[in-house]
Every structure is written in structure tokens, then in C-alpha cells.
């Protein structure tokens, strides 16, 4: 506008200045000329402004729709009757905004890794598919599929392997579903499926079984076969409002958690009891924080008995939680919580230090030196400073390494096999004894067993409990005892509760045993009394 103003008014001003400065023209001549020049200038200015406005219409429209898109996310409807450069700009702008909007929609509603809908789009599609009539909710089934122990297993994979696995899982799940069923990728290792057409309950069960069997087949990724198991949490409920989708997902998540607690490759339907159990778990988890600092933790000791001589040869340290209002909380309730949230690391170190100090105290009190067995969790095995921490505890408590026995489970060792074996070898180098706990319930591979530098195998209590009534349990126990003998390993049986079980294991040549038949886990003071009683019996004999 300034350029147009100057372009049209500079000649007029020049003419006016000329008449004022010059004395060659009379006012009678100058005034008509100036009036004509002024009118002509004004007409020219108006024409220029009209032409500029017409030329700027495409730019003004483009600027307006861009601002509207930024403010309201409304896609532009620009006119297409402009054929000059400005019109081309408008067309390109409109096309670019539509493409940008599609890209933003994809980023917001689709998972970048698998290409499946994300949580928001899953909820929208589920609700839109049902199209509920007001006050007439529809029945829907939501299945949540989760990889069992995905975090632990992924530690052994290359970074890209996990991504390839999730993409392959998405493809396999797609083959299990019909076009009416909705599939989404909710989080790293969880997929959601919605069934809006439910002919019967059996259809949900069959689909769950199909999913589990399909995912159990090995995945060929980067030249190697990877096997996984998955679990499924299921909820069947009514959906009346858009906000009702989230509670369905929450219920299926609870059911999935319960299924994974029961083992690998399971499916579980949601029920209110599951929610109550999870609320109890959350309450325990909140109170577990700080329990160690509040001195609510206790170490109990269970004796291990030589099955041939009947002598007490070792004790196992077992942690207990003395809750101020709930009393003695079962380890089965709080140990899995501590494993999941990482509290098991400081708790395990405290148990180790307490047990080593107690073992040394019994030695200084004049009791015969015996092994102190302490459990190591999978989380502890992952700690890079584990060996240094154990070395420091032994130095502080002045306990000889030969009197410390560390128990590890097969499943804990398999999380990172090579590092676990290296850690065990370092511990063995310190002179510490190593035991393989729960043997027979995990991988139980001779190839792995040969690599583990252990000196003792422990038969899991699940085999001992029905060793007299279940031929399979008896066969497994006999095989473990024979295997331990052939490898020159000691063998301990857990969970001995009857004399008949004791006689059976003794006859098969099992070396040690522990269980309620001998003694429940007891506080240190109670076990001290047992040691004193054993000493008096030896003196009398």
C-alpha cells in the first residue's frame, strides 16, 4: 500500500511544488491544473488499490485458512478458480494441509512399530462399531494379549529383535481374527482385541486358545528361532458410553495379570475377586516401601538334615515380614512384589548380611560350623556389583566363604545365561558353595546343567509332596537323584512332611532334606535352642 501511495502521489506533489516555487504561472492557470491533477491522482490511486486488492485475494484467503487450521484444525476449502501463480500456491497449500492432516492423524492414532491402531483409536472404533442406542448398552468382549516375561526375555535379544518379534506377533494375531474384530497395539508387549459379535462364550474361549497356540509356534527372526509364550486376560461386559471402554481395558489387564501369575500360556476371565486381590497387592506394595527401614523384616531359619545320620548340617535363611497390623505376611505375597518393583535387591542384601552375621555368631558361641544357605533372586543376579557386595559382606561378618551357600533358580540363571554363568564362576572363585534350587521345574537341560558351576541340586517340593502317590513325581525325583550322583553333586529334597516321604528319599540315596517334618522356619533364638539340644545329645552319646 505504501508503494502504491508513493507511486501515485509523488508526481502530484512534484507538480504542486513546481507551481509553488516557480513564479512563471499565474494562480488562475495553476489552480485548474492542480485540481485536474489531484482528481486524476485520486482516480489512479483507487484503481491501483482495487487492482492490488484483487491480486491479494488468494494470499488473504490462504492466510485465513492457515490460521483457522492452526486454531480449530479445520481443513481448508480454498477456491479453485484462480489460475495464476497465486492460485497455484493456494492449490498446493490445500493439498499440503490435507496430507499433513492425514499424517498427524496417523501419528496420533496408529502405532509406529506395528502399524496397528493405538489405544485411543481402539477405544473410538470399539464405541463407534457398537453404535449404542441410548439406554441400551451392548455386550462386548475385550481380550488383552501379553507376552510372558517379556522384559526378562528381551535382555537376551538384540535391540532390533524385540521390534521384529512384535511386528511378527501383530501379523500372526491378524490371521487369527475376522474382519469384524478390532486389533490394537496398546503398549510394548500388549495387544488388545475387541469382539463385538458374541454368539456364545465358547467363541471367546476358542479364540483365546487359537491365539495362544499361534503365538507359541517359534518365530524365525534374523536367522534364529525364538520361542515365546503369551497369556490372555478376558473381560465380557456391557458398553454404554465412550468412557466405558477404559474400564473394560482395565478389567482385562487385571485378568491378564492373574493369568500370568498362574503360569505361562494361560487365559483368565475377569471377576470382581481379581480386582480385590489386586487392590490388596497394591496396598501391600505401598506398605512394603520402607518396611526394611521400619525394621519390620525378619530372618527365619529352617534346618537341613542329613537323611542318613539325622544330624543338622545346614540352615536356610528365609525372609519374613512382621506387619504391624496384618501380622506375619506370607513370603508368597510380598516376595513377587519385591521382585517386580526392585525392592528385592536391598532386601536380599540385608538378608545375606543378617544370615552371615548370625552364622558367624553361632560359630563364636561354640556350635559346630555349618552351611548357611541364602537365596539369590533374578534381580540380584542382574546387579553388576553383586560379587563385590557379597565379598564385602563376608569381610564385614568375618564368615568364611566355605560356610556360605547361595541358592539360585534355573529361571533366574536363564535371563542372561552367559553373564549368569560368569557371575557364578566368580562366586565359586571366592570359595562360596552354589546350589541349584527348584531343579526339575525349569529348563532342566543337561547342557545347561554342565555349564553351571553348582555343587548341589535341590528337588522342588512339588515333586516331594506327592512322591508316594504320583508315579511321575516319583520318577522325576529318582531321575534327579541319579543325575546328581552321576555328576558327583549333593542332593537336597525340599518339603518333606511325612516319615514315609523321608524313608522313600533316604532309600533312594538323597543326601539332605528339609521340611515341616523336621522343623518349620523359626527365628534365630529358636534355632539356637535346637542347636543347644543337639549339642547336649552329642555330649550324652
Description:
The structure is a single chain. The protein has 541 residues and is an alpha/beta fold. The chain contains 20 helices and 16 strands. Strand 9 and strand 10 form a beta hairpin. The termini are far apart. The mean pLDDT is 81.
Secondary structure layout:
Elements: H1 2-21, H2 27-72, H3 85-109, H4 119-130, E1 138-147, H5 150-154, H6 159-176, E2 182-187, E3 190-195, H7 201-216, E4 219-221, E5 224-226, E6 230-239, H8 245-261, E7 267-269, H9 272-288, E8 297-306, E9 312-323, E10 327-329, H10 331-341, H11 344-364, E11 371-375, H12 378-382, H13 386-397, E12 404-409, H14 410-414, H15 417-429, E13 433-439, H16 446-451, E14 456-459, H17 461-465, H18 471-486, E15 490-493, H19 499-508, E16 512-513, H20 524-540
Parallel strand pairs: 6-7, 9-11, 11-12, 12-13, 13-14, 14-15, 15-16
Antiparallel strand pairs: 1-3, 1-6, 2-3, 4-5, 8-9, 8-16, 9-10
Strand order of the largest sheet: 8-9-11-12-13-14-15-16
Strand content: 15-25%
Would you report the number of β strands?
A: 16
Fraction in helix? 40-55%
Low-confidence stretches: none
- Please identify the structural class as seen in this structure: alpha/beta
First and last CA, distance:
119 Å
What is the overall pLDDT average? 81
* Overall geometric form: elongated
Q: What composes the largest sheet?
A: 8 strands, mixed, barrel
Count of separate DSSP helical elements: 20
Radius of gyration: 39 Å
> How would you name the oligomeric state of the polypeptide chains in this document?
single chain
Amino acid at each position: 500500500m505504501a508503494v502504491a501511495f508513493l507511486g501515485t502521489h509523488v508526481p502530484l506533489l512534484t507538480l504542486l511544488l513546481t507551481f509553488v516555487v516557480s513564479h512563471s504561472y499565474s494562480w488562475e492557470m495553476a489552480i485548474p491544473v492542480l485540481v485536474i491533477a489531484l482528481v486524476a491522482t485520486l482516480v489512479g490511486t483507487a484503481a491501483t488499490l482495487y487492482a492490488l486488492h484483487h491480486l491479494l485475494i488468494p494470499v488473504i484467503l490462504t492466510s485465513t485458512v492457515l490460521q483457522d487450521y492452526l486454531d480449530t484444525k479445520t481443513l481448508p476449502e480454498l477456491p479453485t478458480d484462480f489460475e495464476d501463480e497465486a492460485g497455484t500456491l493456494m492449490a498446493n497449500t490445500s493439498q499440503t494441509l490435507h496430507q499433513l492432516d492425514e499424517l498427524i492423524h496417523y501419528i496420533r492414532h496408529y502405532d509406529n512399530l506395528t502399524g496397528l491402531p493405538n489405544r485411543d483409536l481402539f477405544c473410538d472404533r470399539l464405541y463407534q462399531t457398537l453404535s449404542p442406542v441410548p439406554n441400551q448398552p451392548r455386550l462386548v468382549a475385550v481380550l488383552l494379549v501379553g507376552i510372558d516375561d517379556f522384559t526378562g526375555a528381551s535382555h537376551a535379544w538384540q535391540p532390533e529383535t524385540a521390534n521384529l518379534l512384535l511386528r511378527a506377533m501383530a501379523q500372526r494375531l491378524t490371521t487369527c481374527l475376522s474382519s469384524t474384530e478390532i486389533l490394537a497395539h496398546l503398549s510394548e508387549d500388549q495387544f488388545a482385541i475387541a469382539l463385538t459379535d458374541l454368539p456364545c462364550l465358547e467363541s471367546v474361549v476358542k479364540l483365546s486358545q487359537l491365539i495362544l497356540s499361534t503365538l507359541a509356534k517359534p518365530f524365525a527372526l534374523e536367522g534364529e528361532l525364538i520361542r515365546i509364550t503369551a497369556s490372555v486376560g478376558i473381560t465380557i461386559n456391557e458398553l454404554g458410553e465412550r468412557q466405558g471402554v477404559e474400564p473394560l481395558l482395565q478389567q482385562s489387564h487385571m485378568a491378564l495379570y492373574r493369568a500370568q501369575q498362574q503360569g505361562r500360556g494361560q487365559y483368565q476371565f475377569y471377576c470382581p475377586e481379581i480386582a480385590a486381590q489386586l487392590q490388596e497387592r497394591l496396598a501391600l506394595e505401598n506398605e512394603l516401601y520402607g518396611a526394611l527401614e521400619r525394621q519390620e523384616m525378619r530372618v527365619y531359619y529352617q534346618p537341613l538334615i542329613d537323611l542318613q545320620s539325622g544330624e543338622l548340617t545346614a540352615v536356610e535363611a528365609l525372609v519374613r515380614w512382621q506387619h504391624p497390623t496384618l501380622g506375619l505376611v506370607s513370603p508368597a505375597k510380598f516376595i513377587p512384589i519385591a521382585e517386580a518393583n526392585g525392592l528385592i535387591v536391598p532386601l536380599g542384601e540385608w538378608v545375606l548380611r543378617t544370615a552371615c552375621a548370625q552364622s558367624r555368631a553361632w560359630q563364636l558361641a561354640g556350635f559346630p560350623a555349618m552351611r548357611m544357605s541364602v537365596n539369590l533372586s533374578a534381580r540380584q543376579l542382574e546387579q553388576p556389583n553383586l560379587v563385590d557386595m557379597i565379598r564385602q559382606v563376608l569381610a564385614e561378618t568375618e564368615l568364611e566363604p566355605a560356610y556360605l551357600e547361595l541358592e539360585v533358580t534355573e529361571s533366574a540363571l536363564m535371563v542372561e545365561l552367559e553373564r549368569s554363568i560368569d557371575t557364578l564362576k566368580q562366586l565359586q572363585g571366592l570359595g562360596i558353595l552354589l546350589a541349584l534350587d527348584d531343579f526339575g521345574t525349569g529348563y532342566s537341560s543337561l547342557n545347561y546343567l554342565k555349564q553351571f558351576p553348582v555343587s548341589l541340586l535341590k528337588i522342588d517340593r512339588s515333586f516331594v509332596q506327592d512322591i508316594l502317590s504320583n508315579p511321575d513325581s516319583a520318577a522325576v525325583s529318582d531321575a534327579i537323584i541319579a543325575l546328581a550322583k552321576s555328576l558327583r553333586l549333593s542332593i537336597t529334597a525340599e518339603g518333606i512332611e511325612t516319615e514315609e516321604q523321608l524313608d522313600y528319599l533316604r532309600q533312594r540315596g538323597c543326601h539332605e532334606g528339609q521340611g515341616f517334618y523336621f522343623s518349620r522356619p523359626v527365628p534365630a533364638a529358636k534355632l539356637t535352642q535346637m542347636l543347644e539340644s543337639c549339642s547336649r545329645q552329642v555330649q550324652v552319646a
